[in-house]
Design brief:
mainly alpha, 6 helices, 81% helix, transmembrane, membrane, DUF2784, transmembrane helix, DUF2784 domain-containing protein
C-alpha cells in the first residue's frame, strides 16, 4: 500500500514541475490557479516544517517489504532528494514558487469570457 502512495507522491511532484510548463503553454485559468494553489499549500507546509500528508501516509503504510522494493528505493531517492541538504531543497522550492507566482505577471491569464 505504501508503494501506491509513493507513486502518487511522485506523480504529484511531476505534476508540480511539468504542470508549470504546461500551464504556461495552454494558459488555462483554472489549471494555473489549481497548480499555484497546490504549490502554495506545499510551500506553506515546508515553511511551517509540517510533513506532507502523502509522506505521512507512506510512513503509516510502510513495512519491511517496502524498504526492499526496487521501485520504492528509487522513488524515495527521487522524491526526498536524499543527496541534497534540506536547506538547498527549501531554497529550490521557494525559488520555484516565486517563478510560478511571478508568471501571473509576465504571462497574464486570458480575460474571462
Amino acid at each position: 500500500m505504501a508503494e501506491y502512495f509513493l507513486i502518487l507522491h511522485f506523480l504529484f511532484i511531476l505534476y508540480m514541475i511539468v504542470g508549470f510548463v504546461v500551464g504556461l503553454a495552454i494558459n488555462h485559468r483554472g489549471f494555473r490557479f489549481v497548480h499555484a494553489g497546490l504549490l502554495a499549500f506545499v510551500s506553506t507546509l515546508m515553511i511551517l516544517g509540517i510533513p506532507c500528508p502523502l509522506t505521512i501516509l507512506e510512513e503509516h503504510f510502510s513495512s519491511a517489504d517496502y524498504e526492499g522494493s526496487f521501485l520504492a528505493v528509487w522513488l524515495n531517492r527521487i522524491i526526498y532528494l536524499e543527496w541534497f541538504d534540506p536547506g538547498v531543497v527549501f531554497v529550490g522550492d521557494m525559488t520555484f514558487a516565486m517563478l510560478v507566482f511571478s508568471s501571473f505577471f509576465w504571462r497574464p491569464l486570458p480575460p474571462r469570457q
